[in-house]
Amino acid sequence: MIGPSEVVASFDDPADNLAFDEALLRAAPEAPVLWIWRNTDCVVVGRGQKIEREVKADVCTSDGVPVLRRASGGGTVFHDPGNLNITLVLPGLGLSGEAVKPLEALGELMTATVAELGLPSRLGDRGLFVGDAKLCGFAVFRTRTGLLAHSTLLVSTAAERVGRYLTAAPADPRPLDSHRSRVASLAEHGLRKGVAEVTDAVRVAAAAQLGELTTRKPSAEEWEWHRSLQHTRYHYAEWHAEGAQRK
């Protein structure tokens, strides 16, 4: 019987990380897959969002911070090495044949992770909060064969860095606009943990939720999907600018 696994992979280019994130879902795993990863500085918008409503593009250009697009919905986020990304890919049906609820599964994982680190938290609108500040943002993407839920976890990223690149809430709110919330990292809550220690906490929480995870390299199918998605989306400027993909 195939069991849950943690895939180990990393890429220097944030666009390649985003391509691999989606590739894990497209490969249609038969059991849960966990991937823990980080990006260099970039801004990542949700699939249907308008960059001009979400991002201070002139500041990003001035600072050399790329603006990229992911396949999932949800709001715009700032990535840097102090922000841990956690991807959970699930088959469409659970072991007993019931429909899987990816946001609930991800919320359980991140709540347990933050508890493992010693902080109380609460689930809110597509994210996890400590007090009134968002610590983790959630987003989901579904296909006919599986579900992907991913979370950011602010380890040491300063709130000022996030605010430098993301716009304030527009005066004319629209359905796809980000839900703006005050953010604060673990460090800003007084919990000065390194990325390695936080990663270990994610693994402990995932093993308790999913069962013992086998560590593995990417499969041939995941590599194939990664190459395909690099070509049709993530190495294609129009995808990041407008959500249009190459045929």
Question: Keywords, please?
Answer:
three-stranded mixed beta sheet; 247 residues; alpha/beta; BirA Bifunctional Protein, domain 2
Q: What's the arrangement of secondary structure elements?
A:
Elements: E1 5-7, H1 14-26, E2 33-37, E3 42-45, H2 51-54, H3 57-63, E4 67-69, E5 77-79, E6 83-91, H4 102-116, E7 122-124, E8 127-130, E9 133-142, E10 146-154, H5 159-165, H6 195-210, E11 214-216, H7 220-234, H8 237-242
Helix pairs in contact: 1-7, 4-6
Protein name: Lipoate-protein ligase A
Keywords: Ligase
Organism: Amycolatopsis decaplanina DSM 44594
Can you describe this structure?
The structure is a single chain. The protein contains eight helices and eleven strands. The chain is an alpha/beta fold. It has a single domain, classed as BirA Bifunctional Protein, domain 2, CATH 3.30.930.10. It has an eight-stranded mixed β-sheet, sandwiched between helices. A three-stranded mixed β-sheet has the order 4-3-5, with helices on both faces. Helix 4 packs across helix 6.
